[in-house]
Amino acid sequence: MTAGGCGTILLTGASGFVGRHVAAALREAGYAVRAAVRDAGRAPPGTEPFLIGDLAAPVDWGPALEGVDAVVHGAGIAHVGPDVPEARYQAVNTDATLALADAAAGRVRRFVFLSSVRAQCGASSPVTVRDDDAPAPGDAYGRSKLAAERGLAERGIDHVSLRPALVYGKGVAGNMGALVRLARLPLPLPFGGLGARRSLLAVENLADAIVHVLAAPAPLSGPMLVADAEPVSLPEIVAALRAGMGRRPGLVGVDERWIAGLLRLAGRQDMLERLAGALVVEPGRLTRLGWRPALPTVEGLRRLGAAGG
């Protein structure tokens, strides 16, 4: 145990967007953090680097797990599209997760796996998504995450599979990062007529949820959805981002078919469904465990806008 009494956490994916925020939250909570990274120079400040290679290849996790109290496994392939073979998702998101879990079994008290809401549903849903809904992932990424979750459940270890909604915060990439760049343009944006609501998740709230489940009484098992308290529409997202930039919303209403065509020309045809499609998430199990998201969505988006992405 550390001087703070919290113990040491092995954190994989520590050098990424989410991992750096999680490392900071763990350290603030009193944990020592052993950061599994490919490059020691990219380990978050104040962490102990542990070098690993490609997760698709065998990794000797024994030395990394020495003296470790719990594992937070965030490394993996993000949802990057159809150009990634399903076998690659399987090797990195499923097989590597279960190999680490096997190495950690009997050595750590809890295994926290960063899965995704996409293990439970597609990019949008006409109904509210809840923990107990039958999972129906819509792509190879979601299937690989669900397979890892089920493998963890079969092993009978104390674990939590967190299923975050779309995560945003300083340093975000992907569709949310592209939206921040659009919001920065000194032009009206054609999203004013899009009213579908979507749950988002501030990276600070995700990090807090991880700290919360690490401290929860044992045993734990199974998936838990994670999201901010209030879903928002795409116009509300843009308005909040631009408020953080000190600007007015600058939104106009345009037929959704025209928007889809423009995004298709820009090579971002996936953005409309993933940012404007309805996907409301209800994190019931995590809420019953006592977790509440501290940062409101609009405030988190304003901070992201003020930070410039």
Automatic annotation (TrEMBL):
Keyword vocabulary terms for this entry: Isomerase
Lineage: superkingdom: Bacteria
Keyword check for Isomerase: yes
Listed EC numbers: 5.1.3.2
SUPFAM superfamilies for the chain: NAD(P)-binding Rossmann-fold domains
Domain NAD-dependent epimerase/dehydratase: 9-218
Statement: the UniProt record of this protein carries the keyword Isomerase: yes
One Pfam family cited in the UniProt record for this chain: Epimerase
GO molecular function, one term: UDP-glucose 4-epimerase activity
InterPro entries per the UniProt record, alphabetical: Epimerase_deHydtase, Lipid_A_modif_metabolic_enz, NAD(P)-bd_dom_sf
Enzyme class: isomerase
Name of the protein this chain belongs to: UDP-glucose 4-epimerase
Species lineage: Bacteria, Pseudomonadati, Pseudomonadota, Alphaproteobacteria, Hyphomicrobiales
